[in-house]
């Protein structure tokens, strides 16, 4: 059957090529045709032909070939020789950092191409194929023609080791043969922009060996709808089990150029493939402008987006999931290579389309076995002062002196190694970007020009850093940190970081499972590459504070809240939902925050500790002071398990349970396990389990339930607790303070706080002995600070036969190495 299809395709291609020398319909193209039509057009043909039956919608079109480009140049006598001479001069100017001369020669090259005459036989073929496309678009043959997108596709473009994406021009809403031919010439001229010339030089491509194909594609009316990009991996960490979708209103030019901040969605691929709906993150972007087509003036214009629309998401949940499925299909079709994809939603019909797809070229060629870990040193020569923040691009550090530049016309002021600070970049900035110590822009998102170039060059960058040009000035020494999560930080002076490169292949497996303590979802995708067996402690209260910030009861009793509290809550919920009830916001945000973290480690286990804020900490949440009692010692007050079944908080705990159910049942992340903190008695544990069951979350339905071992009663009554729980996790901080009778917040007696005290160690040993003796045996782990700070404590636990040791991310490698040595010494 495959041979028959291939033969039919070959026959159709032969018929087309007998009629046309310089144009080929998308449906007759395959990925092998890159030398003829470039990566972009070959990919579009591959998708039109290979993925339509699978339901992936791609607008049809045709491509002019590389031969058409050469035919155009050769038909104009002397043009090629003049171009070669100018290119040689441009190379010399670049080597001598003569930016103005370099740009002037590029401008002359483009003018020469635009002044050249297009051969009539080529014009006729384009005209003929455009007429066919007009029929396909359902338009009258007598009309001026279909609206089309005209896109450049260099014949060396979108290869696994290089990407020319965005370097050549594209044009939208082109209408009529005359305008189509004009835009075709403009595409050819754009092969000689400063950015394109620089990139070819840096990548070692011969300028006169790279040709240009032009794709002509039926226009999707995304100017009345929305558009965006999608990556079939996380573009910052390289984590491959997610699809990242970004969306804006209007035409996609604004997101490609980084002019607006997009909405952002994260979808987990493995459970999406299983039929679940794992939209684990939704973030509303500012979407400041919408690019639309002005039919009267036949031009594209940017319009401000009203505030009400900006607070809404640009696509629905179901549309995001459909796009993610398409992304996975495209990735699989291309041999499971990570892909960089552009999509559009037609506002007139509501239909979604894929308009481009190319290989992702940064992480797809990086070494996934090497993990680089930066840690800010505790001892600093100067006080820590954050000057500005924005979106972190990459995962490294930059140091240097600031150079604020307002316009590309001033780039000759820039010196290599300086940190470029500006409003936003475009290809005109390319001659200096690769020499920057770091890049900071006030505008733009993850797909902005600055972000793309920074990833390609391995340069730290922070984009969307509002106010950076005011807080930073020329000559100021700063540190640019992109290694502390999604938010990049700009520090005053030189802040010292340590860096360790880890080749995970060098570390042996251990009998004792190595887990992580992790709280921030924004660091989870990068941390997932660490050599670990899962997460031993995911702190729900961190998600409370960072993602929600509202007391649960202020949402369940929203109608009873004072007006000022209601207004504040409504403000905090903007850009999310819409929700039928305020408490749905809490469930959704909690599920997203925790779900992102759980997805990062899937299918490895993630143990979620239910909320363990103290009353004084709950009171700091919006509306919290209306519900929380004032306690003399909140450390041993109304916290943990005692809240969950109590009439004064139970409805808040039920929201936590709903979020867990959503993660396991809607997202399909069944690797999530639950842990109950500060549970004083087995009877209290039973009450919590019954309360969870009321909400439909039952231990034993594929759900493991753990209890924190942080109170002496957990140790002495381990047999009884084992009747209700599947395992224990030692909380060494609370266990130490309650065993030694020390409030760890009391400064005068804090020096007596010692997690390695014999009483604490004996308690840990006794718990392991009792839990393992139970029928059936119960697991014991530790998620407290002690093993991260004291490797000898970790070695002691290994001797006692502990099942898992959970560590802070910066202690994983060193502690795992010591555990490998300890197990070898013990012969296990």
List the helices and strands and how they pair.
Elements: H1 2-19, E1 23-25, H2 34-50, E2 61-64, H3 66-74, H4 79-95, H5 99-115, H6 120-136, E3 147-154, E4 170-175, H7 177-189, H8 194-203, E5 212-218, E6 226-231, E7 242-249, H9 253-256, E8 263-268, H10 269-273, E9 279-283, E10 289-294, E11 299-304, H11 307-310, H12 317-333, E12 339-345, E13 352-359, E14 370-376, E15 386-393, E16 397-404, E17 419-422, H13 430-433, E18 438-441, H14 449-457, E19 461-463, H15 468-471, E20 477-481, E21 487-492, E22 497-503, E23 513-518, H16 524-527, E24 535-539, H17 540-548, H18 552-556, H19 563-573, H20 582-601, E25 606-609, H21 615-618, H22 641-644, H23 650-666, E26 672-676, H24 682-694, E27 705-709, H25 712-716, H26 718-721, E28 727-730, H27 732-740, H28 758-773, E29 779-782, H29 786-789, H30 791-800, E30 804-808, H31 812-826
Parallel strand pairs: 16-17, 17-18, 18-19, 23-24, 23-30, 24-25, 25-26, 26-27, 27-28, 28-29, 29-30
Antiparallel strand pairs: 1-2, 2-5, 3-4, 3-5, 6-7, 6-12, 7-8, 8-9, 10-11, 12-13, 14-22, 15-19, 15-21, 16-20, 20-21
Helix pairs in contact: 4-5, 5-7, 17-20, 20-23, 28-30, 30-31
């Amino acid at each position: 059957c495959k041979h028959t299809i291939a033969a039919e395709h070959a026959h159709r291609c032969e018929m087309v090529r007998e009629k046309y020398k310089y144009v080929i319909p998308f449906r007759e193209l395959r990925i092998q045709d890159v030398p003829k039509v470039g990566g972009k057009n070959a990919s579009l043909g591959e998708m039109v032909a290979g993925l339509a039956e699978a339901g992936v919608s791609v607008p049809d079109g045709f491509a002019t070939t590389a031969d058409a480009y050469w035919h155009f140049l050769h038909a104009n006598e002397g043009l090629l020789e003049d171009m070669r001479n100018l290119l040689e001069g441009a190379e010399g100017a670049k080597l001598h950092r003569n930016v103005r001369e370099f740009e002037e020669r590029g401008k002359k090259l483009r003018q020469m191409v635009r002044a050249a005459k297009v051969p009539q036989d080529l014009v006729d073929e384009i005209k003929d194929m455009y007429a066919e496309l007009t029929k396909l678009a359902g338009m009258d043959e007598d009309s001026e023609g279909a609206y089309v997108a005209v896109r450049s596709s260099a014949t060396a473009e979108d290869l696994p080791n290089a990407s020319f994406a965005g370097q050549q021009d594209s044009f939208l809403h082109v209408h009529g043969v005359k305008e189509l031919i004009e835009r075709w010439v403009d595409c050819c001229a754009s092969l000689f922009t400063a950015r394109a010339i620089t990139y070819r030089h840096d990548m070692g491509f011969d300028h006169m060996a790279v040709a240009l194909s032009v794709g002509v594609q039926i226009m999707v009316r995304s100017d009345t709808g929305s558009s965006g990009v999608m990556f079939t991996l996380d573009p910052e960490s390289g984590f491959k089990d997610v699809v990242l979708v970004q969306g804006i209103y209007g035409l996609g030019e604004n997101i490609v150029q980084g002019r607006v901040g997009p909405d952002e969605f994260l979808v987990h691929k493995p459970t999406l493939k299983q039929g679940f709906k794992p939209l684990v993150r939704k973030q509303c972007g500012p979407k400041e402008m919408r690019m639309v087509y002005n039919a009267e003036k036949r031009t594209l214009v940017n319009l401000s987006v009203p505030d009400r629309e900006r607070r809404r998401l640009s696509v629905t949940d179901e549309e995001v999931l459909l796009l993610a499925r398409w992304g996975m299909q495209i990735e699989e079709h291309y041999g499971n290579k990570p892909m960089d994809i552009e999509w559009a939603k037609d506002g007139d019909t509501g239909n979604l389309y894929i308009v481009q797809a190319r290989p992702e070229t940064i992480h797809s060629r990086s070494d996934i076995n090497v993990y680089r870990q930066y840690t800010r040193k505790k001892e600093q020569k100067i006080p820590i002062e954050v000057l500005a923040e924005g979106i972190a691009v990459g995962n490294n550090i930059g140091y240097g002196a600031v150079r604020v530049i307002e316009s590309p016309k001033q780039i000759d002021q820039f010196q290599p190694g300086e940190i470029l600070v500006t409003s936003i970049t475009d290809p005109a900035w390319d001659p200096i970007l690769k020499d920057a110590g770091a890049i900071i822009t006030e505008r733009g998102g993850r797909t902005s020009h600055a972000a793309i170039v920074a990833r390609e060059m391995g340069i730290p960058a922070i984009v969307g850093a509002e106010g950076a040009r005011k807080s930073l000035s020329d000559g100021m020494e700063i540190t640019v940190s992109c290694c502390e999560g999604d938010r990049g930080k700009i520090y005053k002076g030189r802040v010292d970081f340590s860096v360790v490169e880890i080749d995970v292949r060098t570390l042996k497996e251990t009998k004792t499972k190595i887990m992580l303590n992790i709280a921030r979802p924004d660091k989870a995708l990068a941390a997932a590459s660490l050599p670990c067996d899962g997460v031993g402690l995911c702190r729900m209260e961190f998600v409370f504070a960072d993602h929600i910030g509202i007391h649960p009861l202020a949402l369940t009793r929203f109608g009873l809240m004072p007006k000022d509290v209601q207004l504040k809550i409504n403000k905090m919920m903007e850009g999310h939902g819409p929700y039928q009830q305020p408490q749905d916001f809490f469930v959704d945000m909690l599920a997203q925050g925790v779900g992102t973290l759980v997805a990062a480690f899937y299918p490895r286990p993630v143990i979620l500790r239910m909320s363990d804020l103290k009353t004084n900490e709950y009171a700091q949440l919006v509306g919290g002071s209306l519900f929380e009692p004032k306690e003399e010692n909140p450390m041993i007050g109304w916290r943990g398990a005692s809240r969950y079944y109590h009439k004064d908080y139970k409805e808040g705990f039920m929201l936590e349970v709903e979020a867990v159910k959503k993660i396991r049942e809607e997202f399909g992340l069944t690797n999530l396990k639950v842990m109950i903190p500060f549970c004083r008695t087995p009877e209290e544990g039973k009450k919590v389990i019954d309360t969870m069951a009321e909400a439909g979350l039952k231990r034993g339905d594929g759900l493991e339930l753990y209890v924190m071992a942080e109170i002496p009663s957990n140790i002495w009554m381990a047999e009884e607790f084992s009747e209700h729980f599947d395992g224990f996790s030692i909380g060494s901080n609370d266990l130490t303070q309650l065993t030694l009778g020390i409030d760890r917040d009391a400064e005068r007696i804090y020096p007596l706080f010692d997690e390695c005290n014999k009483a604490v160690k004996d308690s840990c040993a006794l718990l392991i002995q009792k839990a393992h003796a139970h029928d059936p045996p119960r697991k014991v782990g530790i998620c407290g600070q002690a093993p991260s700070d004291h490797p000898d404590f970790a070695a002691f636990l290994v001797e006692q036969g502990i099942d898992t040791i959970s560590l802070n991310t910066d202690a994983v490698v060193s502690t795992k190495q010591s555990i490998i040595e300890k197990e070898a010494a013990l012969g296990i």
